## 1
Amino acid sequence: MGNKKIFANQKMYMTKQDVETFIKASEEKEYEQLVICPSILYLPLFQDSKFHLGVQNIFYEKKGAYTGEISPLQVKEYGVEYAIIGHSERRTILHETNEMFQKKIDACKDQDIIPIFCIGETKEQYEMHKTNQVLKRQLFDVLKNVKKEALEHIIIAYEPLWAIGTGMIPTNEEIERITQYIKSIINQVFHVSVPVLYGGSVNERNISKLNQISNIDGFLVGGASKSISELLKMYEVVVS
Ligand code: PGA
């Protein structure tokens, strides 16, 4: 990725009316470096918007008897280009497994959807200086089984669990060092260069500082992405 991108993970925060207000308040211009990942229900509302689109989750089969699931083939019809996979909320609340992440990443490749694979350590692991070790395991346990072609377009999102929705954030130096670590181990082992995003409590107050980190390729923004005015302020910082 040449320029940094913002991925807006709007989680389950918004109602239909909130989404309509959000879209109405966006400007009449192309947001080349902004990807909105709305609640799946609202994808059609974003159809004619100027935003790029992603989904917060995806299933790994194309069609069939999978109650409640949505496939890469189906979201592709709505112009979706990205899919978040392995978000910590899906790991901890829904107990998704490494095998599911691997299948989801492979299934995205079949529809040319770019997977954003999320990894991150807990507060306890961070305090015990186990971050690198934990991230390495989270990456390898999944990526070692992923098809080589799927690896070529993957994006990694580094999201420390203790930073998600808490207002706490690692220092720029820590994020830079960890990003470097992620890029270099993936390069050494799988011989591909991957973009890395930072996520966890990014907002309009800290984005200028975070944007100074030289080796990250963008941000995955949760709570602060549901306000169009806050999101566009962050976007201006990233594109300027
Ligand atoms: P947050 O969430 O920005 O609300 O901390 C980030 C995420 O979970 O992707």
## 2
Amino acid sequence: MRILLVEDDELIGTTLRADLERAGFAVDWARDGVEGEYLGREEPCDAVVLDLGLPGRSGLEVLRHWRAEDNRVPVLILTARDGWQEKVDGFKAGADDYLGKPFHVQELVARLIALIRRASGGNVGSLEAAGLKLDEDTQTVRLGDGRELQLTGTEFRLLRYFMLHPGKVLSKSRLTEHVYDNDSDKDSNVIEVYVRRLRQKLGEDLIQTRRGQGYVFGGEAS
Ligand code: CA
């Protein structure tokens, strides 16, 4: 899953990006409000972490512009610790959640995952689909027969995206966009390699190929 991070503080941004990547997200980082607004409009991200005090354009303005364009991407705003007024303004502007600085990154990750699941219509809790259970903390998957398998970072990101969209036709380019960040070398052929690996690990029938369309995870396309 792909996160847009809009944060002008170099130290916080560097740390957050590394933490989010470790948690299995692909991260695009914008350092000012203008770039952040642009990326949020043009890039298909699954959630946004938005600082409010930004050079160029404030986080609240950025958020208002997105919502005015009917961009519904889940947005978590970063506020000052006791900034109740910021929270109120943020929710009025269309924020989905907030976190006061300083915060624990585990809480940020948990909130982002909950936001993304809610937005994709899934359950909040552990991620289960097609008889598999995905553990976000250890990046392992439990199979129907109880076996637990370790996944690499890319396998984890790809499987999580599949499990959030069971029964849907997902094109290779869509998968690539949500599994890799902006800076990575995007090659949709790589998706084929990782789909093959997931099939080898989890069973050949789990991910079906739709010629010319993409892949369907866990059963028939609806
Ligand atoms: Ca700031």
## 3
Amino acid sequence: MKRISILGLGYIGLPTAILAAQAGYEVCGYDIDQERVKQINLGNPVIFEPEISDRLWKVLQTGSFKAHPELQYADCFIIAVPTPFKEGNRADLSYVFQAGETITKRLMPGNVVILESTVPVGTTEQLAQYIEKHSGLKLGKDFFVAHAPERVLPGKIFKELVDNDRVIGGICQQACNLTQLFYSKFVKGVVHITDDKSAEMVKLIENASRDVQIALANQISGMCQTANLDPYHIIELANKHPRVKLLSPTCGVGGHCIAVDPWFLIETFPEQTKLLQMARAINDQKPLTVIKQVLEKAAELQKNNTTRPKVFVMGLAFKPDVDDIRQSPALQIASALHAKTDVLEIKVYDHNVPLNMLHKYNFDIASDVWRGIDWADVVLVLVKHKEFSLMHQDVFCGKVVIDSCGLLYDMQTRQSRSVLEGATKTDTIFWKTGVMKDLV
Ligand code: SAJ
């Protein structure tokens, strides 16, 4: 296996292409977006991911990787295209089958097709049959198909692509062998071999399990708010139990995986997914709860004031330390508040999100975080980017802080720890300040 063609040069396809090129393969990238192809060949990775620019530049220089406007012949085809959902929360597999169709025009005997995109159970088999029908080649004899779902965390993609265990589900043994051969050149984690449907199911339940756990964290935060307790403190202490591992409440679940993949299970197994349906509902409700809380606080402040309260939003990305605003609950909240200019003024800030991605929202964007805080009556913390966590909580003195992601708790515990360093083993104490803290 020497030559690899990768279909879809996005968050997964491009890093995979680069790693495969660095591992010694001759890699041909392909994307339906011609501008993306052009930019990538100029050394612009288009996406934000640590290390990606340097690595891309190196493989372009050595000639081991090039992006093409047309799919190239190869020994192995890797499909890494998006699988969003369409109306009725059903999986939109049009990109996957479009990629399959493109492959049929280049498929040669002995080739293997690896589907990395996350898909509903049964899709790999349907895709394999589709390619067989349209290529005239015999599945399992002339060409081979496997599902090898990606498992990486945005922001740590290059590390996780190498270190994580991987599940490979082949339609036949030879599909497993060839797929394993491909990954063995750069994956250090254990490669687990199974069949295609099992691999599809494993990937979906990984993300569904996270959605359910986040829903529990969000319910804990609701209960704590009613009981006037700090959910981050409660969760930290509960996690001292050796077999408890609660996740953290945030302003909601975003991105293109956790909030999407459970629907692929719900679609296929409507009767056996009541818990998943409930988790989806709880997590989708969370941004609305935050919006309501801000509006209530704004109304309360306006009673004692003639001017509209000024709300400063910290963080717009779908999670900490990424630039990605796709299905971001923070963006959903900021947009909803932006539409309420009759009752409040709003400024936003996120140093990770490029300004051109925010143009269409017409936000008033603060020039820096300090000025934004200084300007505000209410600081709404939506995303715990690491730069925010490094700030001292005193910056919030005299402000109303609505904290939906535990930034204040982190600041308080870190600052308490540094004060107590060497004096006690107590992990957490509350550090009283003038900050009026509202937790969601
Ligand atoms: N979130 C919380 N509380 C938490 C952790 C996350 O509310 O304690 C929120 C985040 O803020 C974000 C959303 O969940 O809005 C999703 O973030 P994430 O970090 O859990 O997941 P993704 O979408 O960045 O990546 C996930 C990963 N899956 C798992 O961790 C099981 C990754 O390994 C997958 O490759 C990826 O989905 C995917 O492509 O499926």
## 4
Amino acid sequence: MNLDGKVAVVTGGSRGIGRAICIRLASMGALVYINYVSRPAAAEETQKFIHEAGGKAEIIGFDVAESSDVQAAFKKIIADAGSVDILVNNAGITRDGLMARMKESDWEEVINTNLKGSFLCAKAASRMMMKKKWGRIVNISSVSGVAGNPGQVNYSAAKAGLIGLTKSMAREYASRNITVNSVAPGYIETEMTDLLDEKSQEQIKSEIPLATFGRTEDVAGAVAYLVSDDGRYITGQTLNVNGGMYM
Ligand code: NAP
């Protein structure tokens, strides 16, 4: 699984699942652009891990939900690195709450970051991919988007929307040798799941056939497969990485 000479952009690559994806793609030889929006120190730490392992990584801060920022960022990446070959739309936020009490701003923030942000980045990256007649796009969805989850109507809608975006993009771009897939993680050990109290964590684990939370590396492995040559004939799919909690 060799990505020598490829340029990869990972949104929200500074920590959590995104960090593991950056480390994995860099270990395969890609030059990785680590995106963040508010915590530059986390991005620097990810870059340090990659450099210490002998990989190549740059940092690019921008808000995926802001169209002009996204366009400027991809313009800069292409000017500096000459290409964008792989895009992983991983940046995501939660603003959980029951629907009856959910504020419109909670709906908008989640849809804008998790869904619109992925559309904007995919649109910007795919221009270059079309020219090169090669590209790999992976959208990080969620078990919440495929199975639903109380307290997450905004998040589930955004993550289900990503699957629709994936399928339609896959059909539009296949003739240019650009594959577009989703990875839908279940519960993965990150700051997002650290927020759950111990009782909730045990309750959730009891509903997972593999009886444990996943690791960020489990998601990174699925992304690595889809962007590598081994995944060349896979497009428009959703790969569930969830310990069997949704089949
Ligand atoms: P995380 O630890 O909270 O990290 C989120 C990342 O997204 C950070 O790098 C953050 O940057 C970045 N980000 C947030 N808003 C952004 C914006 N507007 N523009 C650019 N970057 C932005 O998240 P995670 O748990 O690793 O989750 C990563 C992805 O997997 C998300 O899409 C999430 O929905 C999905 N997922 C996670 C789980 C899980 O169990 N953790 C399960 C299913 C799906 P800053 O640090 O600079 O703010």
